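Entry for the shared binder. Reason: the reviewer on the internal report wants the predicted structure included alongside the sequence.
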Amino acid sequence: MEFLSQMWSLLGLLTILQNVLPTQLLTLLHSFWQSLQDSITPYSYFDVPEFLGSAAVEPNALYRHVQLYLHRSLLLSSPSPPRLTLSLPRSVTGHVGAAAAPPSVSLSPNHSVPDAFNGHRAVWTHHADTLQDSLEERRSFSLRLPKRHAAAVLPAYLARLAAAADNLERSSRARRLHTNAASPRGSASWSSVPFCHPSTFETLALDPDLKARLLADLTSFADGREFYRRTGRPWKRGYLLHGPPGSGKSSLIAAMANHLRYDVFDLELTRVTTNADLRALLIQTTNRSLIVIEDIDCSLHLTGDRGLASMRRHKRRRPTAAASDDSSDSDDSCGGVIGADSHQGKVTLSGLLNFTDGLWSCCGEERVIVFTTNHVDGIDPALLRPGRMDVHVRLGPCGAHAMRELVERYVGAVGDQEMLDAAEDCIRDGAEMTPAEVGEVLLRNRDEPETAVTELASELKARVTAADELQWEDSAAELSDESPTKKGRKGFAGWEGKVRILGRLRSLTKSESGRRGV
């Protein structure tokens, strides 16, 4: 009892001194006490605050790594876990259509959890201190290691921790679909929604060789940290997807994002006012992101501008006005500005090139830039070279293998194999349907597999006939346009053209029984 009373007296004295002594003196005494403890204890302590600096604005990436590492490696696998905190954000429960997410687990404040590495024991402690006269909390982790081995153990231990946290973040983090929108102040910014697109490489109807090449390229890029660091290249990759509407460009983008587990930033160039706004949007994108610019040929006029500028310079060049021509040349040849005369203050080709391959493109790591277009000929060649668009993927009409995949996926097994063979024959004969068109035919009859395949074969057959008729009309028009003088000079060629037309006409008038299965 006497000992307890002395302890209470000492605590009371300390409380009085804390209220009486100046803050600077208390801080000095606290530092002296910590130094005394550090000199006596056999352990080394390392603090990992949640934010960097006194302003507590910049997040500490290592704090996030420790959180993830403890969640996966220690808290859930420990035979006797310490006190844990369970949480489930409202945004997760309120999202319609999202799968039920498990609650997140974290170490409760002022509790510890042990770990082992190379025969050494490490202890993590979670601290949460409330600031005086404020509701704000300052959170941090502290790591305790044996003092004799701390210098040798710490780098390798933190490397293992970062690798484990990186794997967990890839596989479990909630991904977002971002789009650019002007803020009330007029500056460029992103807004986002949860990204829940179901498309994967397993559900895509692609040529098997193309699918294998894309998967290998994406996997090699995601695992290429050391390669890009060794070669001095920015860790980014450019893809150009081109093909007719409905060929599956957007579905392929979603499959790429799901395979890499990246966030998607859908950049709408028509909403970007200047090159400075374009740079600001790029800086705001996160690592492990897929930046998409769809229909690049429609978003901006990115071709022909340098040719137009050259034509304007040529027209302005007069023998009597050489001096003025020099000034106009310098104005029009400044790096491919898009319509310098009529697009003042707009995004330029030069700005877009810097976005994809300039100095600003290296502000971040592990980024994939994807352009899509229906007409690849309408894009400036400067945007298509390697280093900007490294991989060009043409998505065309549905092939025989892709058609069979879609039939199996939409309607299941089909008993009438002759109809499927007939549909394949039509594709080999030149019938063209995009995957979207094939899917729509199958979707209308998804409960009746035989009807679906029959309607698909009929549609393909009709397109073969239409293509033959169009080719015959084009050949007839070429013959009818020939003048008498041309016929005299090219009589033999004219007779060959007539023979070809008669042959095509005969093939069109044959009975339909000549073609298989239709």
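Summary line for the report: The chain has a mean pLDDT of 77.
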